[in-house]
């Protein structure tokens, strides 16, 4: 981050010195000189985020593999040690029985085989059950990690798209970017509302109205959705519905009171008495 900031400063210093020498020329410039550096900075940030996500995915996969291998090694070592101990015990018992003459050698061999088989079967079943439980837990954790990583990726992608939308001047390009956001997160009411605003700018009033209705269905406490729907109603000359939505928007967010006089989509309501009373309040 510091290196990128230093590069931007190094590029900005010559530009600033040059602009001081050419004051008359500066007035003729139509666009800011720093816009390419901002775009480059945004692209570099997006690239670094993608690289960090790839490294995180590799680290998570490696940790899961190491955990599975370590669990398997421990289970096998524990099983081997247990079986060896059982054999030692059985051997000692068999030797004692032979010395005391309680059983014949053949009976002892048969008994040892039966007991050993039972013990091995019991231990094998026990450790298979434990390994299944461990594997199940690891799969659940892996699923959570993958879902979290996907959520982080989606969040980063949406953030970068919002930044692109803030730089775009064309309403059609903004609508295209909002569509990309909704493709990643279909229920993003903020993207729906901003898309409706862009649609109003290009005259797609009916489309904007349907979009604001969908946003309100997902969240009936989002003030901007009511505000944009009021704009659509105003354009369709549905003054009663527009006034109701304006009142609801102001009820949910008092900060919108400062915008009511400057909203161009409310021009059809300027002569409405109820609208005038809202402005005075």
Automatic annotation (TrEMBL):
Source organism of this protein record: Carboxylicivirga linearis
Q: What is this protein called?
A: Tetratricopeptide repeat protein
User: SUPFAM superfamilies from the entry?
Assistant: TPR-like
Q: Which UniProt keywords apply?
A: Coiled coil, Membrane, Repeat, TPR repeat, Transmembrane, Transmembrane helix
Q: Which residues cross the membrane?
A: 86-105
Out of the domains of life, which is the source? Bacteria
The UniProt entry's coiled-coil ranges are: 39-70
């Amino acid at each position: 981050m510091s290196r990128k900031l230093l590069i931007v400063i190094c590029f900005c210093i010559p530009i600033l010195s040059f602009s001081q020498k050419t004051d008359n020329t500066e007035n003729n410039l139509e666009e800011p000189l720093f816009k390419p550096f901002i775009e480059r900075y945004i692209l570099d940030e997006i690239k670094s985020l993608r690289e960090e996500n790839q490294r995180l995915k590799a680290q998570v996969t490696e940790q899961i593999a190491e955990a599975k291998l370590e669990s398997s090694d421990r289970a096998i070592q524990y099983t081997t040690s247990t079986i060896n101990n059982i054999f030692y015990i059985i051997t000692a018992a068999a030797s004692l029985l032979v010395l005391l003459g309680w059983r014949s050698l053949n009976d002892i061999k048969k008994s040892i085989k039966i007991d050993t088989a039972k013990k091995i079967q019991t231990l094998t079943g026990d450790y298979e059950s434990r390994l299944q439980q461990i594997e199940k837990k690891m799969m659940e954790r892996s699923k959570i990690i993958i879902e979290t990583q996907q959520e982080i990726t989606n969040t980063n992608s949406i953030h970068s798209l919002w930044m692109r939308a803030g730089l775009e001047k064309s309403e059609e390009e903004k609508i295209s970017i909002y569509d990309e956001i909704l493709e990643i997160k279909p229920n993003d009411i903020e993207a729906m509302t901003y898309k409706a605003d862009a649609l109003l700018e290009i005259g797609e009033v009916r489309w904007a109205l349907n979009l604001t209705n969908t946003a309100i269905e997902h969240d009936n406490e989002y003030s901007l959705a009511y505000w944009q729907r009021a704009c659509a109603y105003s354009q369709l000359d549905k003054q009663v519905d527009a006034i109701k939505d304006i009142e609801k928007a102001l009820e949910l967010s008092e900060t919108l009171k400062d915008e009511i006089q400057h909203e161009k989509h409310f021009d059809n309501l300027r002569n409405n008495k109820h609208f005038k009373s809202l402005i005075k309040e």
